[in-house]
Amino acid sequence: MKGSLTEESRKRLRNGISSTDPVSGLTHNFYRYPARFSPDFVRSVLLEFSDVGDLVYDPFMGGGTTLVEAASLGRHSIGTDISSLAAFVAKVKTTVLSDAHLLNVESWARITLPMLKVGTDAPREADWIRTGYQRNINSQSTWRIRKLLEVGLSSVDLLDTEAEQHLARCILLKTGQWALDCRTDIPSTDLFRKQAIINAQEMVDAAHGYASIMRRQKHKPRVCCLHRSAIGAEAEKQIQDAGHPALVLTSPPYPGLHVLYHRWQIRGRRETAAPFWIAGTLDGDGASFYTFGDRKQAGLDRYFESVRSAFSSVHAIATKETLVVQMVAFSEPEWQLPRYLETMSQAGFKEQQMSMTAEEPDGRMWRSVPGRKWYASQLGSTGGSREVVLFHRKK
Question: Of the chain's two ends, which shows fewer C-beta atoms within 10 Å, N or C?
Answer without folding.
Answer: C
